[in-house]
Amino acid sequence: MRPHVTFDTLPQAVMSLHEKLDDIGNKIESLSKQQAFSLSDDTPIGVDEAAKLLQLSKAAIYAKVYRNRIPNYKAGGKLYFSKIELIGEIHSGRRPAHHEQKTEEPSPVFPQVL
């Protein structure tokens, strides 16, 4: 329930709003720093985290590792992945959008005759 604000209590209400906005701003800044750190952090991740990052099942991750489709590391009988390398793999598979595709140029093998 909201407190009743009168003309006499307006300065306190404004001060309370400023404090709440400062708290919200600090929390947003903290969350953005955490997110930036987690994306730039290159600590090794396991199969579960890799599956979550790539939105694949664990079986699909193991299949991609078996076929050498994603970069991985093995230590102590466990698989590890670099988050940055996995994200790089996602970006490397990017296909150009329809408007970005080049028009096909004539083949140099069969020159056009004028």
Shape: elongated
Helix segment tally: 4
Biggest sheet features: 3 strands, antiparallel
Low-pLDDT stretches:
none
For the largest sheet, list the strands in their spatial order.
Answer: 1-3-2
Count of individual beta strands: 3
Rg over C-alpha atoms, rounded to the nearest angstrom: 27 Å
The CATH top-level class label of the domain at 15-92? Mainly Alpha
The proportion of residues forming helix, as a percent range, comes to 40-55%
Topology pattern, helix = H, strand = E: HEHHEEH
Based on secondary structure, the structural category is mainly alpha
Mean of pLDDT:
83
Topology:
Elements lengths: L9 H31 L3 E2 L1 H8 L3 H9 L6 E3 L2 E5 H10 L22
Helix pairs in contact: 2-3
Keywords:
mainly alpha; three-stranded antiparallel β-sheet; 114 residues; elongated; 51% helix; Arc Repressor Mutant, subunit A; 3 strands
Protein architecture, described:
This protein is mostly helical and 114 residues long. The chain has a domain of 78 residues: Arc Repressor Mutant, subunit A, CATH 1.10.10. The protein contains 4 helices and 3 strands; from the N terminus they run αβααββα. α2 packs across α3. The radius of gyration is 27 Å and the shape is elongated. The relative contact order is 0.09.
How do you describe this structure in short?
The chain is mainly alpha-helical and 114 residues long. The protein has helices at residues 10-40, 47-54, 58-66, 83-92; strands at 44-45, 73-75, 78-82.
